[in-house]
């Protein structure tokens, strides 16, 4: 297709009229779709309903070691759940603490604890004049919300197809002691679906931060959320790499089954060095009586082992793949060659990231809303909700059906075209 | 029986020899009992096993309002779980947020949040030179551990049979702005089993604290844990009383089902004014994706309503009562009239508190351990683990069987006698 940038004013004006008519038609259809969050679809949830039969009143609710999961005891997770979560993260069980239903809560607690008590003996961050975090962008709004809540200054670091711009990361953490952390979604990143290259992981592991209490927050949320059986991204084990590089304590890794079993009723985990885990356990002893062991047992008995999880995730992929492909196909068909937007075709994860022309994202999302599609807020993929280019849009294809997704994508591209034409006419 | 205090040296020496012989005999029996924590017994847990059948793969996992409990959404608890927890606490559902499996975690988070962000707009406690909490003693070690962790200075306030010494509480909170809170277990208190009188609750509600961000931490852990059907303690609704007294925001109330369904796999809740709850929700939005709604639904469907819970707790009482009565009977039989210890006979809760002669608690607990009974550490019922009188011992009768409990109580009284005789001989 002809690039809109090569069109003259008249051509654009005519196109605008056509697009406006199409938009009014689309609006008339009364579409109502929420694509704002990475919510599992009903069919994904239905697929795992038999987890509800895993345990019943005849079950022996004992761990393999004989601990009664119905009673108090076991602070950091039952051993078999540690093993399962370790296998998902590709680390070893003794590097794992199993928590409650939300890995977000572990990340929040980790930041909160660092604020009040520091990191392995460092000065509590709340006592420092300035604490900063690096934030690869576009990224995950809920990460940014945590650091914003605690008054931590966030610095944007651009993403590349291999992960964050490591030249920038290295330079910043080496020279600035107030930089205490970085938020990463290293596999099938939110929202771009990028997996950090081996070189990126190794450069992370070899960082020489000015701050001894600098930590990589490695949110491996989509570790096993592949779309293709024969084309899966692999990610180096950051904990192992940090160990090798002489930085064993520099990273916390997080994961959960929120998008494996039931969102909100799964189990979550943090993996880290023994020193980090011991420190976390010290606080957990005071914070909680331990997490829900019966739900941990339910997950282990249902999935049995990592093979069970992987087989299950293949069926997830069968549900997710058509939706992703529908979006990508529509983007290609409707926008290919127009030079008004770009995107990557992810091989896993939960999102597709769309880069509109600068200054267009807010207007596109507003247009979509007008026609009945709720998207993630413009700016959400940036710290403070401020996309400096007003260009990034996160598409979350998981919840709608493939048909709905296809319709929504067509409408989305229509909005993209309409807003872009207006922008070009004004420039 | 003759008071040991009226015995002469010879008489005591002879008694000592007899007691030492009995102790060696008892040791020979190789008893092995852990009475250190308020753990539900296996029969209590067995009794609730059919909760595991409440939900299965055929269940509609929807709230009454139609929300799919399997997916993300609903931050502060499903409405029917709010209702259930509200009825347990005798408050209204809109005063309730339902959380995860541990009310301890809500208390921890409440203190942590106050440290970093203050209370409804007050200065974050971490930025103050000094923060203090009042701690009615003897009290609950896990409460004290939270405030100790955050460097909050703890001030002992003696308990009376009507609750904390309110003259002291009133005087301290009125004159000292650095006092920001008080830990209370107002019903069947841990460890004494005391229920705060109406007058005590009203005096709490009418407090005029110097600190605007002073809060009562009202841990109503044993709200429905009666031992007797026809002799139940009642507790005034502190939230309602605070409202009436013009102090609507001065209290947080906590409760859980840890000792109703399964310890560690229950649901918990906090109740407070709308202003307090809105503030908590603001943080929850960032901290978590919400708590396990399926487990909330499981509890509601199993117990149905407060009547179901109360019927269930009656069966609990039938298990607990004989153990409490066994202990009390042994204490009376073995120690009555000796003037070497005192206790109350609780009508609910999980503990019996024993006051030994000053300076004897540590030695008694050490002796018990020598003979195979693990008790809660001496000092645990006081802030910093320091019982200034070394006299308080917490007995936790819930976990052992009644037979074991009876044996353990006899051995315990033997140790009390032995240590007391030694003490008297040295004085």
From TrEMBL, chains A, B:
GO molecular function: DNA binding; L-aspartate:2-oxoglutarate aminotransferase activity
InterPro entries: AspAT_Ic, PyrdxlP-dep_Trfase, PyrdxlP-dep_Trfase_major, PyrdxlP-dep_Trfase_small
Top-level taxon in the UniProt lineage: Bacteria
Record keywords, A-Z: Aminotransferase, DNA-binding, Transferase
Pfam families (alphabetical): Asp_aminotransf (PF12897)
Keyword Nucleotidyltransferase: no
Name the record gives this protein: Aminotransferase
Source species of the chain: Lachnotalea glycerini
């Amino acid at each position: 297709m002809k690039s809109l940038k090569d069109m003259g004013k008249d051509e654009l004006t005519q196109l605008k009229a056509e697009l406006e008519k199409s938009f009014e038609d689309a609006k008339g259809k009364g579409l109502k779709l929420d694509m704002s969050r990475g919510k599992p679809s009903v069919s994904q949830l239905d697929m795992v309903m038999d987890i509800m039969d895993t345990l019943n009143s005849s079950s022996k609710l004992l761990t393999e070691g004989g601990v009664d999961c119905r009673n108090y005891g076991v602070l950091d997770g039952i051993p078999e759940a540690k093993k399962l979560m370790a296998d998902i993260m590709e680390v070893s069980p003794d590097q794992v603490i199993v928590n409650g239903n939300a890995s977000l809560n572990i990340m929040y607690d980790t930041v909160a604890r660092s604020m009040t008590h520091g990191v392995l003996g460092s000065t509590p961050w709340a006592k420092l004049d300035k604490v900063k975090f690096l934030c690869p962008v576009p990224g995950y709004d809920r990460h940014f919300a945590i650091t914003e809540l605690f008054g931590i200054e966030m610095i944007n670091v651009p993403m590349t197809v291999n992960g964050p711009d490591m030249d920038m990361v290295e330079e910043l953490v080496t020279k600035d002691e107030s930089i205490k952390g970085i938020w990463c979604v290293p596999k099938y990143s939110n929202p771009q679906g990028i997996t950090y290259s081996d070189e990126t992981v190794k450069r992370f592991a070899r960082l020489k931060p000015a701050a001894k209490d600098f930590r990589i927050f490695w949110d491996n949320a989509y570790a096993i959320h592949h779309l293709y059986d024969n084309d899966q991204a692999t990610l180096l084990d950051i904990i192992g790499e940090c160990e090798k590089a002489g930085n064993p304590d520099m990273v916390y890794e997080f994961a959960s089954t929120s998008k494996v079993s039931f969102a909100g009723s799964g189990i979550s985990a943090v993996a880290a060095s023994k020193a980090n885990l011991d420190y976390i356990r010290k606080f957990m002893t005071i914070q909680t009586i331990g997490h829900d062991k019966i739900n941990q047992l339910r997950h282990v008995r249902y999935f049995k082992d990592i093979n069970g999880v992987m087989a299950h995730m293949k069926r997830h992929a069968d549900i997710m793949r058509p939706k992703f492909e529908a979006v990508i196909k529509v983007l290609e068909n409707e926008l290919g060659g127009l030079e008004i937007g770009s995107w990557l075709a992810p091989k896993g994860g939960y999102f597709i990231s769309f880069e509109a022309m600068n200054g267009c994202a807010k207007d596109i999302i507003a247009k979509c809303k007008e026609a009945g599609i709720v998207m993630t807020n413009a700016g959400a993929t940036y710290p403070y909700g401020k996309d400096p280019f007003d260009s990034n849009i996160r598409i979350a294809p998981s919840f709608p059906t493939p048909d709905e997704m296809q319709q929504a994508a067509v409408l989305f591209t229509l909005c993209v075209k309409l807003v872009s034409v207006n922008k070009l006419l004004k420039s």
